[in-house]
Amino acid sequence: MDAKDRLIQELRRVERLVVLTGAGMSTESGLPDFRSKDGLWRKHRPEELASVDALLQRPLLFYEFYRYRLGLLDGVAPNPGHLALAELERQGKLHCIVTQNVDGLHTQAGSRNVYEIHGSLRQARCHTCGRSHPVETLRKPVTSLSELPRCRCGGLIRPGVVLFGEMLPEDALSRAIAAVETCDALLVIGTSLQVYPAASLPRLALDHGARLWVINLTPTPYDAFADIVVTGKAAEVLGPMTRPHE
């Protein structure tokens, strides 16, 4: 039995699964990975654009970048990997998904317990007072400083994502940690486990006696500690689980 078949077999009998997903899950739906070696946008690294400094010091470029990213969401849909995870939740096997992705595709696929530790592109809020605003506000072209989207308090309206230079949302992160500490198994999908604190979750799971399973196209630092490692894409590995029974 190969690693893929072993994983499917384990997923059919797991009782309390937690899943950690990264950019690879989204690229399978057609979204670009801005962290990849080819992930430059107009000659800028994502760290330069998706930052508090860019919002405050280079706002026209900042809003152009996020208007572009919002436009990308219009043309994508959950892939079979997303749908398989939603099905595992419906079956009562999957406790929650902890995701580094900000595209909302897990929720769109039907998953309900999703902890978005890097925030969501499908939300917008005031940078100053935190008031929520319609995300459509960020889709309007901004060509001058006078057109910057502002809250009634005067603060800038920005995407509901975690920018470089900001702390992760405490509530989502604490829920994710609690879930990992009490799971039977942690399934890591589409992340090279290089970005913290998400990259620390596999060690946390192992320290609390959980099994570790990995689906990724490239090696991760935890492959040697995992019970099962599948080199591949989530849509191809998990997709068959969503097919109707004969």
Query: How does the overall form come out from the CA principal axes?
Result: elongated
> Biggest sheet, in brief?
6 strands, parallel
Helix and strand run: HEHHHHHEHEEEEHEHEEH
CATH class of the largest domain: Alpha Beta
Overall pLDDT: 92
Distance between the amino and carboxyl termini? 23 Å
The number of strands is 9
Provide the gyration radius in Å.
19 Å
- The SS-based structural class is alpha/beta
CATH topology of the largest domain, by name, is Rossmann fold
What topology, given as strand order, has the largest sheet? Answer: 3-2-1-7-8-9
State the fourth-level CATH superfamily of the largest domain.
TPP-binding domain
Describe what this molecule looks like in 3D.
The chain has helices at 3-11, 23-27, 46-49, 52-57, 59-73, 80-90, 105-109, 170-181, 201-207, 234-238; strands spanning 17-21, 94-99, 114-116, 119-126, 132-133, 157-161, 185-189, 211-216, 228-231. It has 246 residues and is an alpha/beta fold. The protein has a 6-stranded parallel β-sheet, with helices on both faces.
Compile the SSE list and pairings.
Elements: H1 3-11, E1 17-21, H2 23-27, H3 46-49, H4 52-57, H5 59-73, H6 80-90, E2 94-99, H7 105-109, E3 114-116, E4 119-126, E5 132-133, E6 157-161, H8 170-181, E7 185-189, H9 201-207, E8 211-216, E9 228-231, H10 234-238
Parallel strand pairs: 1-2, 1-7, 2-3, 7-8, 8-9
Antiparallel strand pairs: 4-5, 4-6
Features:
246 residues, alpha/beta, Rossmann fold, SIR2/SIRT2 'Small Domain', 3-stranded antiparallel β-sheet, 32% helix, 18% strand, elongated
